[in-house]
Amino acid sequence: MTQVSSLEDRFLQIIDADEKIEPKDWMPEEYRKTLIRQISQHAHSEIVGMLPEGNWITRAPSLKRKLALLAKVQDEAGHGLYLYSACETLGIDRSTLLDQLHTGKAKYSSIFNYPTITWADMGAIGWLVDGAAIMNQVPLCRCSYGPYARAMVRVCKEESFHQRQGYEIMTVLCKGSEEQKVMAQDALNRWWWPSLMMFGPNDADSTHSELSMRWKIKRFSNDELRQRFVDMTVPQAELLGLTIPDKDLKYNEAKKGYDFGTINWDEFWEVVKGNGPCNEERLRARVEAHDKGQWVRDAAAAYARKQKEKSSLSKTA
Amino acid sequence: MEAARKKFILQWADNSMILGQRLSEWCGHGPVLEQDIAITNIALDLIGEARYLYQILAVEEGKSEDDYPFMRKEAEFYNLLLVEQPNEDWAYTIVRQCIYDHFHYHFLAAVSRSKDEELAAIAVKSLKEVRYHLKFSSEWLIRLGDGTEESHQKMQNALNVMAKFASEAFLSSEADLWMLENCGEPDLAKLKETADKDLLEVIREATLSWPNQQTVRRGGKAGIHSEHLGYLLATMQYMQRTYPGMEW
Ligand SMILES: [Fe+2]
Ligand SMILES: [Fe+2]
Ligand SMILES: [Fe+2]
User: Fold this and answer.
1) pTM metric for this prediction
2) Ordered alpha helix ranges (H), chain A
3) CB contacts < 8 Å between A and B, how many?
4) Confidence label for B102 from pLDDT (cuts 50, 70 and 90)
5) Interface test with A, best of B34, B40, B41, B84 (most A CBs within 10 A)
6) CB atoms B148 and A57 under 8 Å
7) A84 contacts B32? CB cut-off 8 A
């Protein structure tokens, strides 16, 4: 009893001093669990997030765009890799985490369950989805868990590059033909609300928030971050000459920020439950890639084993 | 520009472009995250290489680099039949890659020695990247050939199918002969000896065997393609064909 409480005191001291918890440090089981859930969810989001944009790689409209999109989707794979590694420091391996994704036990960001229908979606995703991700993730660079915080520093640098790239795609569309402008507006219409949902439920309905704040895994509430995102994005839309699809959107002088309409939480929960437009396709694509890769992973393991045997034989010989 | 030089550049650029396009289909669907990243890297290198080459033509002809990949018809592409073959699975992809890398590597080494300075410079640049491609595909050929019984069988099957597409690269077109005559390189017939020797060595180490059949499928370098290229182009050119003349 006293031992646990002194360990816990020490743990909280580290947190309160804004220092980092490292893998070998004692941590409450609930802290570990929360981190595993959050980091793995984040890792899965990066990997599943490759699919909607991957959908346009083979159809990208120019060499420049094709290279940039390929590199971007590849970055997301890299993010997945860092995050799985960060998660593994908490004592769970990648294959277990992947199983959780493939069996539907683990979640990933719902935004990736929406379809990418036109090229403009590549712009809107970069601008809004990577933009919202940055808003969520910049505070995570100061997260109390060392490996996660360090992974996020690298990730955030690349995400902000993605965001600029997406906005630039939108800029070109908005300066283009009438058809291109319509395409850009249509993409904004479809991605705006799902992007706001990326910050999660309203604070009053958020289940995991309080302890996460205490443990400095989370630094700002969902609603705070969402507000910041709206305040940052509205002027960007104006600059593009696009209209945010929210008739209640209005600048509020008193709070020096925008008031905005009510999010359709029924839609949000439907998508979370698996009933979004692409939930099945996304999961199927991941499971298929994994299953089709089984023989490759088996062969690589078998080959590595043979090589090891050979080298130990040659050593004893 | 000499028509033969233009044709030579297109053969080279189209190989990289079409193979890069094929490999990019893997992005997000690779067998392991690390391999997904690696194959995408190769796709990026190849499309980048094609881009430099198309730029040479674009400057010369007052066109845009995008006109070449996105606005030409099937018969105007001069890539090898090998590179347009579908991915099928990781075995086909690695076999195709390993065969191509052996050609590509020695081809670039030869072009880098040619008297065409502009092309030699691109070859030098790409050679650095292709050295890594060759290492990657050779290692995977060996790993999968000498992995499990299942992987061995898959690799041998893929090799049996792909082998007939291997020689076209070394059969000189008139453009190749023009380059050899005027710039001293590449000598494809000579290149074949070294490339084949290296490839067979990798295949031996992979415990695989080169199939006995001596069928050679060719035509790509003359613009006569397999049925696969049309579909690849339909996808790749979709935007430029649907919305002609726009900036993206
Ligand atoms: Fe990412
Ligand atoms: Fe992310
Ligand atoms: Fe991103």
Assistant:
1) 0.96
2) 2-16, 29-48, 50-54, 63-88, 94-102, 120-124, 131-137, 146-174, 178-197, 209-214, 222-240, 265-270, 279-292, 294-316
3) 138
4) very high
5) B40
6) no
7) no
As given in the structure block, the two tokens for residue A270 are: 């439907």
CA of A155 to the centre of ligand 2 (A): 7
Kindly tell me if the per-residue pLDDT of A1 is higher than 60. no
Report the residue count for chain B: 248
Q: Dump pLDDT digits (tens) for B174-213.
A: 999 999 999 999 999 999 999 999 999 999 999 999 999 7
Mean pLDDT of A160-181: 97
What's the CA-to-centroid distance between A198 and ligand 1, angstroms?
14
Write out residues 164-223 of B within 8 Å (CB-CB) of A.
none
Residue A238: partners with Cβ closer than 8 Å, 6 or more residues away = none
**Which residue is closest to B140 within chain A, CA to CA?**
A300
What angle (nearest 5°) sits at the alpha carbon of residue A111, between those of residues A107 and A116?
130
Model confidence over B112-168: pLDDT tens digits? 999 999 999 999 999 999 999 999 999 999 999 999 999 999 999 999 999 999 999
Residues with Cβ within 8 Å of A176's Cβ and at least 6 positions away in sequence, in order, are B246, B247, B248
Q: What ipTM does the predicted assembly reach?
A: 0.97
Work out the minimum CA distance from B91 to partner chain A, whole angstroms.
9
Containing B17, the helix (H) or strand (E) segment is helix B3-24
What pLDDT is recorded for position A317? 61
Residues in chain A: 317
Which tokens go with A267?
């839609």
Does residue B37 sit at the A interface (CB-CB below 8 Å)?
Answer: yes
CB distance A159 to A184 below 8 Å? no
* Sign of the dihedral defined by the CA atoms of residues B48, B54, B58, B59, in that order: positive
Contact A80 B235 (CB under 8 A): no
